[in-house]
Amino acid sequence: MLRPMEWDPADGGPDALTEERPLTPEPRQSKPRTSNISEAEFSCHCCYDILVNPTTLTCGHNFCRHCLALWWESSRKNECPECREKWEGFPKINILLRDATEKIFREVVERRRAEIQANPKVSRSLLAFQRYGDKLGRSKTSQNKGAGFFFSGVLTALTCVAVVVLVYHWGSGVVEQQDLLISKPVSHWTPEEVVSWLEQLGPWTESYRKPFQLENVNGRLLLMLGDEELLKSPFSIENQTHRRAVLAELERVKALGVKPPQNLWEYKAANAGKSLFLLYALKRSPRLTIFYLYLFDYSETFLPFLHTCCPAIAHINNTVESSFLYTQLEPSWQQWAEFLVKYLVLPYQLIAEFAWDWLTVHYWTSRFIIVNAMLLSVLEACSLWRLWTTAPIRTLPQKTWNHLWKVLSQGFAFALMWPFIPQFVCNCLFYWALYFSPIINIDLVVQQLMHPETQAR
C-alpha cells in the first residue's frame, strides 16, 4: 500500500502546487530571427538597393530585372555586369529569392515597383529585353511561319533575280566590255577611233563624222583643233551649241589624256579601286563620301553628280548635246541650296536620283541601286530614331567621333591593301555590293520594322 502524501504547510497545500506547477505546460512561441539578416544579402549588384524581381545569372550573381534589362540595352552583351561571364540561354526570375525578398522587405519592394512602373525608359527596356528573350526562345520552325516565311520567299526570289542579272552580264560580256579609248592615250588614237569617239558624243554628231573620216583626223590632229578650225571647212560646224559641246568634250580629253568614262562599266574599268571604294563608302557613310568627292574629285565626278541630282532650271528642256557643257559649269546658288538640303537630310536620295538618270543605260543595275538607296534611307531613319529614344544626348558626340574614326581607318586600310588584292576578288566584292546588298538590306529593314526594340547596332 502506498503511503499517504504529506503536504508541507509552508508550500501552501495542494492548491499552491496546482498554481505553480501546471499539469500541461504552455508551448513556447517561436519568432523568426531576422536580426542576423542584412540588406546587403538582398541587394542588387547594379543599383545596390533591395532586389526587385531578382534574376540570377549563370555565374550566380543576382540583379534586379530592370537593371539587367538596362545593362543589356546599353551594352548589347550577354554577360554579367559584374564579372563579365556570359550567361547561357535567357535569364529568368529567381522565384524563391523574389518571394523571400517581398516578405522581408515588403514596403521597400512595393515602393521600388511603383517607381519602375512610372519610368517609361525602364518600361521600354524591360519590353525590349523580354522580346529579345522571346526571339531567342523561338524555334526554327516558328521562325519560318507567317511574315518570316513570306519574306524569306521574297529574298529567295530576289537572290535568283540578282544571280540571273549577274550571269547575263558575265555571259554577254557587258560587265567586262569597255571602250579601249578610256585607257589608250589620245595621241595614239587612229582615225577610226577618233570617229568612234565623236559618235559616242550623241546622234547629233552624225553630220560631222564624215569630214573627220575624209580628213583622216587622228589623235594628234584632234588635239590641235580649236574653235576656228571647227568653224571653217572641211568641218564646218556652224551650230554654235554643237561646236561648244565638241570643244568642251575635247578639253576633257586633253585634261585626262584619255576618253572620260561615259557609263558605270567604263568608270569601273578606268577607276577600279575608286569605284569599289565609293560603292562601299556610300553605303556606310554617304555624307563623308560625297564630301570626299568635293575635296578630291571635284570636276570629274562631283560636278556631274551635282548637276544630275540638282539640275539647273534653264537646262531642263535643252537638247542632249548641251549636257557636255553645263555639267562642267559652276552650280548656281539655287542648285547649291537644293543639294545641301538633300545632302544633310536625305543623302541616299541623291544616289537614287543619279541612278534614275542612268536608267536608259543601266536598266537593271540602276533599279538595284534605287531600291538599295530606299532601304538604306529606312535603316538610317530607324537608327536615328533609336538613338533619339534610347541614347542620352551627351553620348552623341562620342558616337559621331567613333563613326568618323571607323570610316577613316577603314578607308586608310583599304588604300594600303588595294595594290595587293587580286582583280578577281575586287570584282566579286564589287558585284556583291551592287546586286546582293539590296537583298540583305531588305531582311534588315523587315527586322527593324517588326522588332525595332531588339535590334542591336
TrEMBL record:
Q: Where are the transmembrane segments?
A: 148-171, 368-388, 408-434
Work out whether the entry's keyword set contains Metal-binding.
yes
Q: What is its membrane topology?
A: Multi-pass membrane protein
Record-linked InterPro entries? SAM (IPR001660), SAM/pointed_sf (IPR013761), Znf_C3HC4_RING-type (IPR018957), Znf_RING (IPR001841), Znf_RING/FYVE/PHD (IPR013083), Znf_RING_CS (IPR017907)
BP terms from Gene Ontology: apoptotic process; proteasome-mediated ubiquitin-dependent protein catabolic process
Region spans: Disordered: 1-34
The segment(s) forming the SAM domain are: 189-256
Q: Does the keyword Transmembrane apply?
A: yes
Subcellular locations according to the entry = Endoplasmic reticulum membrane
Q: Which reaction does it catalyse?
A: S-ubiquitinyl-[E2 ubiquitin-conjugating enzyme]-L-cysteine + [acceptor protein]-L-lysine = [E2 ubiquitin-conjugating enzyme]-L-cysteine + N(6)-ubiquitinyl-[acceptor protein]-L-lysine
Provide GO CC annotations from the record. endoplasmic reticulum membrane; nucleus
GO MF, one term, reads:
ubiquitin protein ligase activity
Q: What's its EC?
A: 2.3.2.27
Name the domain of life. Answer: Eukaryota
Q: Which UniProt keywords apply?
A: Apoptosis, Endoplasmic reticulum, Glycoprotein, Membrane, Metal-binding, Transferase, Transmembrane, Transmembrane helix, Ubl conjugation, Zinc, Zinc-finger
Q: What is its main location?
A: endoplasmic reticulum
Q: Which segments constitute the RING-type domain?
A: 44-84
Quaternary structure and interacting proteins, as annotated:
Interacts with CASP8, BCL2 and BCL2L1 through SAM domain and also with HIP1, IFT57, ESRRBL1 and BCAP31. Interacts with NGFR; this interaction inhibits NF-kappa-B and JNK-related signaling pathways.
**Primary role:** Membrane-bound E3 ubiquitin ligase that plays a role in several processes including apoptosis regulation or reticulum endoplasmic stress. Has anti-apoptotic activity, both for apoptosis triggered via death-receptors and via mitochondrial factors. Contributes to the dynamic control of IRE1/ERN1 signaling during ER stress by inducing BAX inhibitor 1/TMBIM6 proteasomal degradation. Promotes the activation of TGF-beta signaling by mediating the 'Lys-63'-linked ubiquitination of TGFBR1 which is critical to activate the pathway.
Designated name of the protein: Bifunctional apoptosis regulator
